[in-house]
Amino acid sequence: MDNQIQKSPFEIKNIRLFIAFRVFFNSRFYYPIFTILFLDFGLTLEQFALLNAAWAASIVLFEVPSGALADTVGRKNLLVLTGILMIIEMALLCFVPRGNAQVLFIVFLANRIISGIAEAAASGADEAIAYDTLKAEGNATEWPRVLEKLMRVQAIAYMAAMSLGAAVYDPALMQTVAGWLGLDLQLTQDITMRFPLFLTLVMAILTLITTLRMQETEKKPAGQCGSDEICSASMITAFKLTLQAGRWILKTPFALVIILTGLLFDNCIRMLVTLGSQYYRMINLPEASFGLISSVMNILGLFIPLLALRMVQKHSPLFNLSVMVGLTLLGLFGISYVWPLIGLLPVVLIRIVMYLLSFFQSHYLNRITNSQLRATVLSFKGLSFNLAYGLIGVLYSLLLAVLRSQVTQTRLTAGGADLENIVFINSLAWFPWYFMATMAAMLVFAHRTLKGSNEYKIVG
Fold first, then answer.
1. What are 29-75's pLDDT values in tens digits?
2. Pick from 427, 460, 456, 440: nearest CA to 325
3. At CA 92, angle to CA 91 and CA 97, rounded to 5?
4. Which of 237, 335, 340, 445 is most deeply buried (CB count within 10 A of its CB)?
5. DSSP letter at 361?
6. For 334-373, b where at least 16 C-beta lie within 10 A, e where not — what string?
7. Is residue 334 within a helix (H) or strand (E), and if so which, with residue range?
8. Helix (H), strand (E) at residue 331
9. Where are any strands of DSSP class E within 306-376?
10. Which residues contact residue 193 at a Cβ distance below 8 angstroms, ignoring those fewer than 6 apart?
11. In the structure, how many helices (H) and strands (E) does the chain have?
12. CA 247 from centre of chain
């Protein structure tokens, strides 16, 4: 046992495979050009918003059952399923023919649903199999080292994937590279737009290979079923736990206000972040720079948590909320002006808010939540955030339809990409007003809900 305790966690096969799985599964080369990829394929902004709503809805529907399935059919089996689903979702985009708008939308819808199911299937199962393996080896106390290594490796992989994905998408840059290599190729956007997808398909294949090499822990996961009745009972129990957490949140005013307030920040800002590549195109940034921008934005994650820590130590939740509201409004109004180049500055502001939100939510929720309910409450928070993201996707698609109709009536000559750009720019002006309206309603609700409570004034 002494030898096992002193054994490095990175000598354990499952730990190395766990880190590899996270890197391969999350290295999505198309992320920096996510929005413009869909638009360049021939989809509209409304369809893009609806597709992301479908993605969020599929995660919401399968998140809870996936946890029960991990404990019933086995964590490894669920991770293998994740790898298979990732290959299918990427193959659909890699080989879908262009030209038929209806076929394109159906294929992309299938991609988004399968992607959501894969996200839900991977959620928790990979971490559970790694931690159980570490515990079986007598190295459970080394888990923080594993997480630290994972975060560093993922950060490097993410920056590489973002930079390379945006670079290979740019036909001008790829044509230059082909010339340097002496290749007689004519590279157009129709060709290069699939390069990030093929790179991600390679990651999907590596993800599946990684999961197939994993080993289930000898000890059966708690609740592993031996019959269909037990499997069903396990999933029913998972749903009951989630409902129990929901009832606790409703009966705990401060927890309810924390989650609802965070939800309003998250759904508005995440919708804008999802549209990032189209916004970058509108402020005259070259496509090859999108990945570099994403990588630089992630550097904020090295500094903002330190700022957030000092804020919770020196200021109350109400003060911290006020700072976030102020930064968010500055960022949203700044983005709505679509300033060339300097339009990046308001994006930095809303990215800072996202980091602050993540820190504050985790700190305040964990401070007041009972340990027996902590994991389920956090899971419930994730479900509610994805549900809200799906709903704003539907609302945004309706807004785009209205704006498109208005633009078509006033600018009869607008069409194609020009029409999409005008509609997109007009839609940005609605975000600050949407946020102000929903946050004002939230503050009125919070004032009534927290009447007689001083939790929102407590520092620390």
1. 998 898 889 989 999 889 999 998 999 889 888 876 666 666 667 78
2. 440
3. 115
4. 335
5. H
6. bbbebeeeebbebbbbbbbbbbbbbbbbebbbeeebeeeb
7. helix 317-336
8. helix 317-336
9. none
10. 37, 40, 41, 169
11. 21, 0
12. 26
Contact present, 337 and 279 (Cβ < 8 Å): no
* Closest among 307, 308, 125, 102 to 211, alpha carbons compared: 125
How far is residue 375 from each of residues 70, 153, 215, 281, 389, measured CA to CA in Å?
16, 25, 25, 40, 21
- Nearby residues of 409 by Cβ (< 8 Å), 6 or more positions away: none
Confidence of residue 8 (pLDDT cuts 50, 70, 90): confident
Q: Contacts from 224-231 at CB under 8 Å and sequence distance 24+?
A: 224/71, 224/72, 224/74, 225/72, 225/73, 230/72, 231/68, 231/72, 231/73
Residue found under tokens 């069409």: 415
DSSP state of 56: H
Q: Are 333 and 432 in contact (CB under 8 A)?
A: yes
Question: pLDDT tens digit string along 365-401?
Answer: 777 777 666 666 766 777 788 889 889 999 999 999 9
Please state, for a pLDDT cut of 70, what percent of the chain lies above it: 85
Spatial neighbors of 255 by CB under 8 A, at least 6 apart, are: 248, 249, 365, 368, 369, 377
**Per the structure block, which two tokens stand in for 27?**
């290295």
Which domains does the chain show, CATH number per domain?
A: 1-216 (1.20.1250.20), 241-451 (1.20.1250)
- pLDDT grade, residue 127 (50/70/90)? confident
Q: What letters, b where the CB count within 10 A reaches 16 and e where it falls short, cover 35-72?
A: bbbbbbbebbbbbbbbbbbbbbbbbbbbbbbbbbbbbb
